[in-house]
Amino acid sequence: MSIHNQGDSIGPDGAFAELFHQQITRRNVVGQLTGLLEKARAAGASIIYTRIAFAPGFSDLVPNSPLLQMVQQAGCLVDGTDSAAIIQRLIPGPGDAVITNQQVGGFGTELAGLLESGGIDTLLIAGVATNISVESTARAAVDHGCRVVIVEDACSAAAEAAHAASIESLGLLATITGCADIQWDPAAG
Fold first, then answer.
1. Residues 25/28/34/36 CA torsion (nearest 10 deg)
2. CATH code of 85's domain
3. For residues 9 and 128, is the Cβ–Cβ distance under 8 A?
4. In the chain, how many domains are there?
């Protein structure tokens, strides 16, 4: 799963660039994700993207957290805009699933249905931000009964310390690995 890799979230000029872009660049998250997605496609794995986007005017935004309040104040992540789209280097391919949600985590009823209908019980999760959307999605996936693998070197947070703390916490719920350590089984799909 590729979590919230949209212009406003990870782009150099996005609404949250000041928070996330330095660590995204330093950790080479986009490069790592590009390679991870290429290998997953070559192995025939199902690729799922989650993106967070809201209707113009934010009628579907529930500002129940400081982060979502920031979205509303910045007027960002508006569905249909370039800055709410997945960035060009990570653009979904034919057959990839793209789930749009209005919550911090990517796990919701649409994702649960997709996993169940596809017989998917293991999720490799990567994206931004480790301590927010990645962690929220991973925790919900575990509660849903999935085996979760966090691809640590394809994730980042606003600060390295926040990323490290989240990875340490997730280590009790998920397998933590790096892109180079993933063994792709073409028969697994």
1. -140
2. 3.40.50.850
3. yes
4. 1
Per-residue pLDDT at 187: 54
Q: Whole-prediction pTM value?
A: 0.94
| Residue 48 near residue 114, CB atoms below 8 Å | yes
Quick check: 185 pLDDT over 80?
no
| Position 147 in a domain | yes
Q: How far is CA 105 from CA 12, 36, 111, 150, 158, in A?
A: 22, 21, 11, 14, 16
Average pLDDT over residues 53-81: 96
Tokens matching residue 31: 């490069």
Tell me the C-alpha distance between 117 and 35, whole Å.
Answer: 27
Q: Which residues have C-beta within 8 Å of that of residue 117, sequence separation ≥ 6?
A: none
Q: Residue 187: count other Cβ atoms within 10 Å of its Cβ.
A: 6
Q: What is the pLDDT of residues 122-141, one digit of tens each?
A: 999 999 999 999 999 999 99
Residue that is written with structure tokens 């490799």 in the block:
124
Cα–Cα distance, 164 to 161 (Å, whole number): 5
Residue 188 resides in a domain: no
Q: What is the mean pLDDT of the chain?
A: 94
